[in-house]
Amino acid sequence: MRKLLVRLRDDAGMTTAEYAVGTVAAVAFAAALLKVVSSEKVTAALSAVISRALG
């Protein structure tokens, strides 16, 4: 029983599958963020903030 508990607690790092899932999640998040930031409303709001700061 002790060997099983030690083996379950041992976490030497992420495996290749975990890296793949993490990479896919990061890419999906980046795509969603890009979609939001490149929308017309956000672009207009950012332009207004920059214009106000420089003007």
From TrEMBL:
Pfam families: DUF4244. InterPro entries: DUF4244 (IPR025338). The chain crosses the membrane at residues 20-37. The keyword Membrane applies. Keywords: Membrane, Transmembrane, Transmembrane helix. This is Uncharacterized protein DUF4244. It comes from Asanoa ferruginea.
